[in-house]
């Protein structure tokens, strides 16, 4: 499985980027709203998880292409900016949606956790021949 991810990293990263956009652009009336989600902050965990995976998939692509450390920093910054832009779009253009800067914080947190795990991710994917 890990080599399928590694081999197709660019396509998977693009696909996941589009999935995040679609989920964030979905009109508010189609998103479930339950009181238990608020209590457990499931929404924030989902945001952090989505952006962790966003960063992880782009990291795989960067590892595959041999990109340097600064490239990884740029991926994290791009993820944080992407999360912020989506929140602004929710405030202005997406139907029945509103910005939530706690969501933006969760998005950034997911990107930063991936950065903290970068060394392990690289070791895992570069430790065995493809």
Spell out the blueprint of helices and strands.
Elements: H1 2-7, H2 9-25, H3 35-40, H4 42-65, H5 69-92, H6 101-116, H7 118-126
Helix pairs in contact: 2-4, 4-5, 4-6, 4-7, 5-6
Radius of gyration: 16 Å
Q: How would you classify the quaternary structure?
A: single chain
In the predicted model, the low-confidence regions spanning at least 5 consecutive residues are: none
The count of DSSP E runs of length 2 or more, i.e. the number of strands, is 0
Q: Note the beta-strand portion.
A: under 5%
Task: Identify the overall geometry.
Answer: elongated
Rounded average pLDDT: 83
Give me the secondary-structure category: mainly alpha
Total count of domains = 1
Helix content: over 70%
Largest β sheet strand count, sense and barrel closure:
none
Distance between the termini: 11 Å
Number of helices: 7
The ordered string of helix (H) and strand (E) elements is HHHHHHH
Essential attributes:
130 residues; mainly alpha; 78% helix
Describe this structure in words.
This protein is mainly alpha-helical and 130 residues long. The chain has one domain (2-25, 37-126). It has seven helices and no strands. The chain has helices spanning 2-7, 9-25, 35-40, 42-65, 69-92, 101-116, 118-126. Helix 5 runs antiparallel to helix 6 (101-116). The mean pLDDT is 83.
Please provide a brief summary of the model.
By secondary structure, this protein is mainly α.
